[in-house]
C-alpha cells in the first residue's frame, strides 16, 4: 500500500524537491513560523470541538461556555487548550514578526512573503480579537466595546469599521453574531488563503543567510533535516500547551452586563500596551483628540512596517534599532499596565 | 512555435481580449461587491422608546441606577437637591461604562481613570467631552428616561 500511495502522489519527486531546498537552522528563531502555523492548527482543532456546543446568542453564549467547562466531558480541557493555544498563537505571531524585522529578512526578494505575512498578522489579531468576545463575559463585553471604539478612531474609515465590528451602532446581540461569523468562517477562510500564499511565496524565494557566516554547514536540507528539527519544536509546543491546559484553568468571569464595567478592567495581554497608552495619553495632541491621534500614529507605523521592503531595501541599522525600541517600549508598557 | 511576425499580428487581438476579460471581471466585481458591502453594513435600528427606571421613591437622594435603553447603558442620578438627571453611561473616551460614586459625588470610569462631576462635566483623566445628557421625566411617580 505504501509503495502504491508513493507512486500515485509522486512522492519521490516531492522528496527530492524538498531535499534540494536548503533551510537555515542555526537559531530557534528560524522555527517560529512553523510553530505559529502549528499553534493555528491547534486552534482549528480545538475550535472545531468547541463550536459543537457553543451558542452564538447574547442570551445563551455565556451559559453555553459554562456548560462546556462544567458539564461536557473534557470540555474544560478543550476550552483551556483553546485559550492557552490562542495565547501561544499570538505570542508566536509577534515573535515571528519581530524576528523577521530584526534579522531584516524582509529585504528583496522577500517582498511577497513579507506582505502576505503582514496581512496574516492582521488576520491573526482579528482572530484573537473576535475570539476574546465570544464567551460574552463581563470582560469580553468590555473588550468588544473598547476594541470597537478604538477601531472607530482609525483615520478616514473608522466610523464604518466601528459599525461593521459592532454589527450596528451599539455593542449588543448583533456584535456577538458578527464576531462569531468572523471568528469561525470569514477569518479562517481568509487566513487559509493568505497562509497558503505566504508558504507559496516563501517556497519560490526561500529564506537565505546573507551574512558572512552563511555557508553550506549552516544550511540543511528542508527534508528530512529541517522538518525533523521543526517537529521536535512542535512537540515541545504541544506539550507546553497541554500542560498549561491541564494544570492552569482559565477563569470565565461574570456574565456580560451592559450596565457595569468589571472592577479592574484589563484587556487580553496583547492589548496591554494599547490600554496603557490610551490611559496615559492627554486629551488632545496637536489639536487632535488624544485617542484618535494615537490610533492614527499606530496606523502610520503599521503602514511603514508593511512598506519596509520598499523603503529599506538594504536593511539599515535604523530599522534594526527602531524595531528594538518598539519591542522594548511594548514590553515596558505591558509591565506598567499590569502594575 | 509561432514566428515573431505572427505573434506581433496577434498582439492587438490579445490585448483586446485581455481588456475585455479584465473589464468584465472588474464590472462583475463592482456589481457583486456593492450589494455585499450594503448587506454587511447593518441597518439602523429603531428606538424602543422611553424606559421606566422605577418609582422615584425607590431612588433615594444621592443614589444612582443604571438601566439599558436601546442597548446603551444610561446612568440615572438623584442629586442632593432631589433633582433627577440622566446621562449616557458610556465614557466619552473609549466607551467604558461609567459609575456614580456617592461617596465622592462624582462619576468615574474604571478603565482609564476618567472622572466626571455629578453633572456630567469631564474633570480629569482622558475623557475629551462631558457625558451626553439624556432627557428624563417624572410621570405618575415613575422616572422615565429616553422620553420623546
Give an overview of the whole structure.
The complex is a heterodimer of chains A (339) and B (148). Chain A contains 14 helices and 4 strands. Chain A is an all-alpha fold and 339 residues long. Chain A has a two-stranded antiparallel sheet with strand order 1-2. A two-stranded antiparallel sheet of chain A has the order 3-4. Chain B has 148 residues and is α+β, with helices and mostly antiparallel strands. Chain B contains 1 helix and 11 strands. The longest helix of chain B is centred in the N-terminal third of the chain and has 37 residues, at 4-40.
How much is the radius of gyration of chain B in Å?
Answer: 29 Å
> What's the SSE pattern of chain A?
HHEHHHHHHHEHHEEHHH
Alpha-carbon distance between the termini of chain B? Answer: 80 Å
Helix content of chain A: 55-70%
* Beta content of chain A: under 5%
Q: Whole-number radius of gyration of chain A?
A: 22 Å
Number-wise, the strands of chain A total 4
The profile of the biggest β sheet of chain B is:
4 strands, antiparallel
Strand tally of chain B is 11
Oligomer: heterodimer
The main pleated sheet of chain A reads as:
2 strands, antiparallel
Strand percentage of chain B: 25-35%
Overall pLDDT score of chain B: 86
Number of helices of chain A: 14
Mean pLDDT over all positions of chain A: 89
Q: Could you say which overall geometry of chain B the principal axes of the C-alpha atoms support?
A: elongated
Q: From the helix content, strand content and strand pairing of chain B, which structural class follows? A: alpha+beta
- Low-pLDDT runs of chain B: none
What is the N-to-C order of secondary-structure elements of chain B (H for helix, E for strand)? HEEEEEEEEEEE
Amino acid at each position: 500500500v505504501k509503495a502504491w500511495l508513493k507512486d500515485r502522489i509522486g512522492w519521490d519527486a516531492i522528496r527530492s524537491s524538498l531535499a534540494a531546498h536548503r533551510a537555515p537552522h542555526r537559531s530557534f528563531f528560524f522555527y517560529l513560523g512553523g510553530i505559529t502555523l502549528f499553534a493555528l492548527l491547534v486552534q482549528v482543532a480545538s475550535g472545531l470541538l468547541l463550536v459543537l456546543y457553543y451558542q452564538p446568542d447574547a442570551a445563551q453564549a455565556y451559559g453555553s461556555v459554562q456548560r462546556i467547562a462544567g458539564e461536557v466531558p473534557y470540555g474544560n480541557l478543550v476550552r483551556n487548550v483553546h485559550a492557552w493555544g490562542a495565547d501561544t498563537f499570538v505570542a508566536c505571531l509577534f515573535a515571528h514578526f519581530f524576528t523577521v524585522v530584526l534579522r531584516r529578512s524582509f529585504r528583496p526578494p522577500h517582498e511577497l512573503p513579507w506582505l502576505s505575512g503582514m496581512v496574516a498578522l492582521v488576520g491573526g489579531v482579528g482572530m484573537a480579537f473576535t475570539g476574546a468576545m465570544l464567551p460574552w463575559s463581563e470582560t469580553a463585553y468590555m473588550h468588544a466595546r473598547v476594541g470597537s471604539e478604538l477601531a472607530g478612531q482609525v483615520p478616514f474609515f473608522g466610523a464604518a469599521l466601528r459599525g461593521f465590528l459592532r454589527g450596528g451602532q451599539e455593542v449588543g446581540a448583533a456584535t456577538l453574531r458578527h464576531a462569531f461569523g468572523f471568528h469561525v468562517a470569514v477569518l479562517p477562510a481568509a487566513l487559509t488563503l493568505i497562509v497558503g500564499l505566504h508558504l507559496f511565496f516563501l517556497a519560490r524565494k526561500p529564506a537565505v543567510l546573507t551574512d558572512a557566516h552563511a555557508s553550506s554547514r549552516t544550511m540543511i536540507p528542508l527534508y528530512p533535516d529541517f522538518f525533523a528539527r521543526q517537529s521536535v519544536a512542535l512537540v515541545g509546543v504541544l506539550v507546553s500547551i497541554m500542560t498549561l491546559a491541564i494544570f492552569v484553568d482559565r477563569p470565565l468571569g461574570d456574565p456580560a452586563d451592559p450596565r457595569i464595567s468589571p472592577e479592574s478592567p484589563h484587556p487580553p495581554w496583547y492589548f496591554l500596551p494599547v490600554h496603557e497608552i490610551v490611559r496615559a495619553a492627554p486629551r488632545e495632541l496637536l489639536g487632535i483628540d488624544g485617542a484618535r491621534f494615537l490610533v492614527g500614529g499606530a496606523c502610520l507605523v503599521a503602514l511603514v512596517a508593511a512598506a519596509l521592503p520598499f523603503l529599506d531595501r538594504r536593511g539599515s541599522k535604523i530599522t534594526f534599532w527602531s524595531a528594538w525600541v518598539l519591542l522594548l517600549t511594548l514590553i515596558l508598557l505591558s509591565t506598567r499596565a499590569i502594575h | 512555435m509561432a514566428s515573431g511576425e505572427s505573434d506581433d499580428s496577434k498582439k492587438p487581438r490579445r490585448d483586446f481580449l485581455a481588456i475585455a476579460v479584465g473589464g468584465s471581471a472588474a464590472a462583475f466585481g463592482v456589481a457583486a461587491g456593492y450589494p455585499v458591502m450594503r448587506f454587511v453594513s447593518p441597518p439602523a435600528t429603531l428606538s424602543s422608546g422611553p424606559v421606566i427606571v422605577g418609582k422615584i421613591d425607590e431612588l433615594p437622594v444621592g443614589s444612582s441606577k443604571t438601566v439599558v435603553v436601546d442597548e446603551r447603558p444610561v446612568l440615572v442620578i438623584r442629586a442632593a437637591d432631589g433633582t433627577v438627571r440622566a446621562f449616557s453611561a458610556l465614557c466619552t473616551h473609549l466607551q467604558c461604562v461609567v459609575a456614580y460614586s456617592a461617596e465622592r459625588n462624582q462619576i468615574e470610569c474604571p478603565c482609564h481613570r476618567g472622572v466626571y462631576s455629578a453633572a456630567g462635566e469631564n474633570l480629569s483623566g482622558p475623557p475629551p467631552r462631558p457625558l451626553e445628557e439624556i432627557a428624563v421625566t417624572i410621570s405618575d411617580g415613575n422616572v422615565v428616561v429616553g422620553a420623546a
